[in-house]
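Justification of computing resources. Each target in the renewal requires a structure prediction run like the one illustrated here; the chain below, 293 residues long, is used simply to show the kind of job we budget for.
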Amino acid sequence: MTIQIGCAANTWNHSRFTHEQILAEIASAGYAGAPAGPAGDATPESTLALFERYGLRPAPAYFGGNFWRAEESASILASAHRFAAFARAVGCDALYVAANGFEGYTTRRGLNRKQIAGQVTTDDALTDREFTQLAATLNEFGALTLEHGVRSCFHNHVGSVIESGGEIERLLASTDPELVFLGPDTGHLAWADVDPVAFVHRHASRIKTVHLKDVNQQVRRAGVAAGWEYDAFTEQGIFNELGQGDIDFPAILSVLQQANFSGWLIAETDVTQRPTALESATVSRQYLASLGL
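Resulting C-alpha cells:
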C-alpha cells in the first residue's frame, strides 16, 4: 500500500445528508476513500458495493470504548473481533481505537472531561487502577484484531480520558508496540498543546494511519484562558480546513515519508466555518494536492 487520502464524514450533518450523498460529495472532492465500519446493518459486501458505486475505497474506521472499566472489557473485546473482521473483509489493515470520556468520566475535581477540554491537569487523570485496566484491555484488543491481520491504532482525542501529552506518552509506554499502534489526530494533539511535528517524529515507526486535522491556535489560547468547555471551542472556530490553520503539515508529511509511511491519511474537519461540507472537503483536498498528495 502507498499513501492513500481519505475524508472523514464528520463535517456533514447526518440529519440532512444520507450516507450515499456524503460519499458522493467525498468522491467529487477528489478523495480516494472514506472510513467504513460495521454500523447498522452494513455488511462487508454491501459496503464494498456502495463504495464502488462512487469510485471510493473503504478506509480505517473508528472504535471508541470505556477501556478503563473492567466490567466492560468483555463487550469491548467482543467488538475487537467484529470490527477487525469487517475491516479485513473490506480491505483495511488498520482500525482507529480510542478511549471514551467526555461526559462519561468524572475527575477527582468533580468535572467531566468535556468541561475541561484542552485544560486537563494531573488531578483529572485516570486513577492508577483505571489506567492499568485501560492499558491491559488495549493490549488484549490489539492482540485480537491482529488475529484478523488488522492493527489497532490508538487515537488521541481532546475530551477523552487520554488527551494530554503526558497521558498519551504514559499510555504508549504502558502498551505493547507490537500490539497497539498509533493513529494520531494532528489537530487534537495541537489542541492539547502537544507539538504534532515533534510527536510524529518521536513515534513515526508506530504510526500506521493519521487523521489530518488543522486548528486555530489563537482560538485555542483564548479558550484555555477563558476556561471554555469543548463545544465553545468548536463554536468559536478552533477547527480549520487543512492549510488554513496553524499545523505544519509539510513537516509532518516529511517525517512520515522519511519513515517510509504507507497507509491512509484521513482529512477531517469536525466543524467547518465554510458554507458547506463539500466546500470544506474540497479546500482540504486541494491543499493536500498542493503538497504532492
